[in-house]
Amino acid sequence: MKKIEILYEDDFLIIVNKPAGLAVQGGKGVKFSLDQYLKTLGASLVHRLDKDTSGVLAAAKGREAAGYLSNIMGTEGKTVKLYTAICAGCPKPDKGIITEKLLIRGSMKNSKTKYKVIETKKKEILFSGTAENTSAIENLEYSILELELGTGRMHQIRRHLAMNGNPILGDDKYGDFKLNKKLNKAAGLKHLLLHASRIIIKDKFNIDISFPLPEYFNYYYNTDIKRMNNKINK
User: Fold this and answer.
1) Element (H, E) at 55
2) Would you say the CATH fold of 80-234 matches that of 1-73?
3) pLDDT tops 90 at residue 28
4) Which residues contact 150 (CB under 8 A, 6 or more apart)?
């Protein structure tokens, strides 16, 4: 079982840091899920994160709190959910709103994702083991984004960024599969680089909780080709 950190708790609300790879709900092939753990604390889900997404998630204690929090989650002016992602390329303009409709259970739904480019970087990455059995150094351009959900559709951020031409690195469902495979081999990319970094619940609670990025994001903040080459050669 993955360690689950409790970031905040009171009589009505509990906020945890969900690790990547942990499903929030049970299902086929799921041995343990976050909602099972929350039940042991007398809490229930009021919003969700993808299995592959890490970060801050809120749950309610008791039926009254669950009804109230479920109603205000995603309501503009009452809750704010912020995410950090690392995506391929650089979105243009460097901040904006993606409003492409998404197909949800057979019908097209209005969707809204705000984004802001925090930083765009280029990194030299050594890709080895090509068809010609040679190695090549390529420049990878990628961007660190802050995102805010205006709606909460399934896989919304992942789908919107992919549709915008800037898939999240490590996304094995909507991403650039060739690039992910190369980064896995060259830089050990094994996780979706999407993290729920902060949640603000206003109204009755007035709570603002954030949590730092997991360690596997660190590689994309520092250019260190020597360290990378050593890793490849092991």
Assistant:
1) strand 54-61
2) yes
3) no
4) 76, 97, 111, 112, 113, 114
Task: Name which CATH class applies to 1-73.
Answer: alpha beta
| Confidence class for position 2, pLDDT limits 50, 70, 90 | low
Q: For the whole model, what pTM was predicted?
A: 0.89
Q: What is the pLDDT of residue 1?
A: 56
**Superfamily per CATH, domain 80-234:** Pseudouridine synthase (3.30.2350.10)
Is there a contact between 145 and 85 (Cβ–Cβ < 8 Å)?
A: yes
Alpha helices of the chain — where are they, by DSSP H? 34-40, 63-72, 156-163, 177-187, 225-233
Catalytic residues: 50
C-alpha to C-alpha distance for 105 and 219, rounded to whole angstroms = 37
Task: Give the start-to-end residue ranges of the domains of the chain.
Answer: 1-73, 80-234
